[in-house]
Design brief:
The chain has one domain. The longest helix is centred in the middle third of the chain and has 59 residues, at 2-60. Helix content is 89%, strand content 0%. It has one helix and no strands. This is Cell division protein ZapB.
Length: 66
């Protein structure tokens, strides 16, 4: 009986440790995702600015060049 309780206690301890580890991993992944999403927003904004600049340059080209 004591051996069964000891084994159960060890399994519960392992489960608690696993849950804590997964919680920490989840937190880290959420931070990484937020950083990646922010970088994506910045990149999209820069691409939009570049597109506008290119369109402005094209609009200023003489017709015979196009």
């Amino acid at each position: 009986m004591d051996a069964d309780l000891k084994a159960l206690e060890e399994k519960i301890t392992q489960l608690v440790q696993l849950c804590q580890s997964m919680r920490e991993d989840n937190h880290d992944l959420r931070q990484m995702l937020a950083l990646a999403q922010d970088a994506e927003r910045q990149l999209k904004a820069r691409m939009q600015q570049a597109q506008v600049r290119i369109e402005n340059i094209i609009d200023r080209l003489p017709e015979d060049v196009l």
